[in-house]
Amino acid sequence: MAHDTKPAFDIILWGATGFTGRLVAEYLARNQDAHRAKWALAGRDEGKLEQVRSELVKVRPEFADLPVVLADAKDAASLDAMVARTRVIISTVGPYARYGNELVAACVRAGTDYCDLTGEVQFMRKTIDAHDARARETGARIVHTCGFDSIPSDLGTLMVQDYMRERHGGHCDQVRFHLTRMRGGFSGGTIASMMDTLAAVKAEPSLKKVLTSAHALDPEPSRGTKEERDLATVKKSPDTGTWTAPFVMASVNTRVVRRSNALLGFPWGRDFFYSEVSDFGPGPKGLALATATTAGLGGFMVLSNVDPVRELLEKHVLPAPGEGPSATVRERGHFEVRLLGEGHSPKSGQRVKVEGKVAAKGDPGYAATARMLAESALCLAFDTIPKRGGVLTPASAMGMVLVERLRKAGMTFEVHDRAA
């Protein structure tokens, strides 16, 4: 790392006063592994930071002395001073395209590791173009999408490929992600990021090319093949016989998984195929649910592109930034993903099929995401992982080490052969 002196902290949580930031702070406060970490809360409002700290005192009394660090997202000097004091920055301040650029730049200059939970493809493309080369020089590991976007997809695919290599001696040339169960709510921060992306495309139409490119996050972006287009209609899966619909985050996750393959040196092949869908099961019920979901998602996107309607939704219907699902909703939430892999086995000379499962209790976007993001930071801070710098992905930065850490944290990552 590029620090001239040893940093005072292992982890600084930037955006600790926001909805997700408070959840990450509470997770770190309750996590036994985090107790060996020197960490601090950071933001621009000292009073609000002290309020978060007072809540953490209820978890552990010694947090009365938890340090707070002040900085401003638009003040490069204050960000430079903050990142110089730590080994890892966790950022929960979104929309990232609006508030995240200066912080990433500061981390790159200092050689400080960074992780966030962005799902903004245009922001990630910007950081790759602006900072990847310099981050490789300073050793800064800039790791986006360390939450529900895109750890189940990225690490789930890595797990399936790792199993395929060890058991069958080859790789899966295709992996299909099926979201089979999900229960949870939306926060104002997530809505704000979605609305910001739509507004950005309207103001700068050239961004649409980035957002619709199948390989938008590859080192060398490309449109990809027709088959790689994200599902936009109801479709019966040939793999499972179930009815599927578009998955709202497929346009993010698929790009992240493809970037991982490229950054790792194409171990899954240059023609590796990856897709994501929401799975609603077989029969008339599955068809009805898939149809309703597709119609609802399509209608929301159409309405959100109409300025007066979008403003009405933001003011009177959708949660505002800083708001999110209640503790009860978060606790009742869950998700389960199936990853269906297929490839040639050099050992048997046959095509083989494998199936992975990634699942967790807790609202996927908040309770589960807080766990994934916090564990990613702890992994960057303490675990033995590659020291390569750059704008990375969870799989290329932390790999199976993070999978094992998340298993120990209560998440399900499992894989087995399935009938050919």
Question: What can be said about this structure in brief?
Answer:
By secondary structure, this protein is α/β, with parallel strands linked by helices. The chain has helices at residues 19-30, 46-57, 76-83, 96-99, 101-110, 121-138, 151-168, 188-203, 207-212, 250-263, 283-304, 307-317, 327-332, 367-382, 394-397, 399-408, and strands at residues 9-14, 39-43, 68-70, 86-91, 113-116, 141-143, 174-183, 235-236, 243-245, 273-279, 334-344, 351-361, 390-392, 412-418. Helices cover 45% and strands 19% of the residues.
Describe the model:
With 420 residues, this protein is α/β, with parallel strands linked by helices. Helix content is 45%, strand content 19%. It contains 16 helices and 14 strands. The protein has helices spanning 19-30, 46-57, 76-83, 96-99, 101-110, 121-138, 151-168, 188-203, 207-212, 250-263, 283-304, 307-317, 327-332, 367-382, 394-397, 399-408; strands spanning 9-14, 39-43, 68-70, 86-91, 113-116, 141-143, 174-183, 235-236, 243-245, 273-279, 334-344, 351-361, 390-392, 412-418. Strands 3-2-1-4-5-6-13 form a seven-stranded parallel sheet, with helices on both faces. Helix 14 packs across helix 16. The longest helix is centred in the C-terminal third of the chain and has 22 residues, at 283-304. It is globular and about 60 Å long.
